Amino acid sequence: MLIAFDSRTGNVRRFVDKLKVPSIQIEETMTIDEPFVLVTYTTGFGQVPDKVMSFLKQNHKRMRGVIASGNRNWGEGFARSADTISELYGVPVLGKFELAGTNRDVERFTQEVRAVASY
């Protein structure tokens, strides 16, 4: 399954690179014509980045799940963008990770993507 992602500091890109699966960095006005899983960062105090929201306005119907990065120092705001996107678009949160994620984060996410892709 395609991974669509956005990365501000490079952490999300490093996480996605560990997955070794087809991926594309999103642009606000692009259209994706196949099912995908979104990997995004969290900004501010738990918000979804504006670029990601613009992208999802056109592409949310093909999204099958979401995972987000964050910083655990934000407590309840940690990777909250995944929760917001899940609530707005009715897709499952497939995980949350800090910085570029651990090998265990990558393994768990890969399993979750396989499960979503099998539906």
TrEMBL record:
Domain of life (superkingdom): Bacteria
Xref: InterPro entries: Flavoprotein-like_sf, RNR_Ib_NrdI_bac, RNR_NrdI
A Pfam family reported for this protein in Swiss-Prot or TrEMBL: Flavodoxin_NdrI
Signal peptide: none
Any one GO molecular-function label of the UniProt entry: FMN binding
Family affiliation: Belongs to the NrdI family.
NCBIfam families linked to this entry: nrdI
Function: Probably involved in ribonucleotide reductase function.
PANTHER family: PROTEIN NRDI
Protein name per its UniProtKB record: Protein NrdI
Species, as recorded: Cohnella endophytica
